[in-house]
Fold this protein.
Amino acid sequence: MSYSSPYVFTALELLTAAKMNAIQNNISAIFVGTTAGDMDYYVSASAKQRLAIGANGYHLASSGSAPQWVANVRYMSFLINTDVALNSGDDAVRFRIPSAMNGWNIVSVAMSRKSGTGILTVQIRNVTDSVDALSTKLTVDSGEGDSLTAATPAVINTALDDVATGDQFALDVDVAGTSTLYAFVEIGFSKP
């Protein structure tokens, strides 16, 4: 419903149902919320729309044309090695899940390297639960620098992607490639 210019009454004018309905329509156009926590925003110069309260843990963002609620994603990034060639093996990096991310899920994974050849392959392992978080491992193809262009993209096992406070995770280098330097792994977590 859009807002229209308010009616200007004259002295002793008869108040009709149509005039009262016009006033009511303007009030409805101004106050579009229906529930505690609702927000309103303009969809045109004279019309508003209701945005319901977002889910717990979501934050307000812009789509470019309207506000929207989006999942809060936090990232952890790990430098596996620096200027010494990477070696294969478990526990290249260990990390702990903080209490602020209890009950969250792994939602994205990525990896890069500064230099090296061969296929760099890494698994993300939940040490606490003795399970692998990836059903298809994270790879950087030979001659490339990022997993974004991997021929076989990593796949997160959605049955094993949940994390809990104090969970220990490890990055296991299954294939180090040749002369791999400055390998980074990035993991994104979000509240379901």
Notes: The longest helix spans residues 17-30. Residues 102 and 164 are 4 Å apart (CA to CA). The chain has a mean pLDDT of 89.
